[in-house]
Design a protein that fits this description.
The chain is built from 9 helices and no strands. The protein has 177 residues and is mainly alpha-helical. The relative contact order is 0.15.
């Protein structure tokens, strides 16, 4: 497959595997399995992880805009809605100060919507690790969701103003070989 698809694109600093996975999925059916596991040496540190997620989210915008579709697998509509709801929950936190205590309903509902979008994951964490870890997980998941939504917003803005950014990915559709 590597000979057929060609190498990773060395000009893509943060998303070479996303580009490659997209090219791979154009020719082959990809399967998700728990039989193969891996670990990145820096993913256990929050700031480097959030930085990586930000760059990856931002850099997906030109790929998906060019391909006119999202990737399959982990990037589901519910996860996208959950990320947007988390960012909006954070942005609307000042509403009670501006409009009174009743306005606190808005960020609370948005936070609930964010959690609801990932409800299956929260149930899994609760079942396997318990309520104390669930709280810890929820805080981290909120940070991840806010980071992802913010990165996509920045990526969209960058896509609108930068022709070079729009052309980040060369060929997204493979011709029949």
């Amino acid at each position: 497959m590597f000979a057929e698809l060609g190498p990773f694109d060395p000009t893509l600093r943060h998303t070479e595997e996303v580009d490659y996975g997209y090219r791979l999925s154009q020719r082959y059916q990809l399967r998700l399995t728990s039989a193969v596991r891996g670990r990145h040496d820096h993913d256990h540190k929050l700031v480097p992880l959030l930085r990586k997620l930000f760059h990856r989210g931002r850099m997906r915008v030109p790929l998906y805009a060019q391909a006119r579709r999202f990737a399959k697998g982990f990037e589901t509509a519910n996860r996208a809605y959950g990320s947007v709801a988390a960012l909006l929950a954070l942005v609307t936190v000042p509403l009670p100060v501006l409009f009174g205590p009743l306005a606190a309903v808005v960020p609370a509902l948005l936070l609930a919507a964010s959690v609801g979008c990932d409800a299956g994951m929260y149930r899994f964490v609760l079942r396997w690790r318990g309520p104390v870890f669930l709280l810890y997980f929820g805080v981290l998941q909120f940070a991840v969701n806010v980071t992802i939504a913010a990165s996509v917003a920045v990526g969209v803005a960058q896509w609108v103003v930068s022709r070079r950014f729009r052309g980040t990915y060369g060929v997204t559709e493979l011709s029949a070989a």
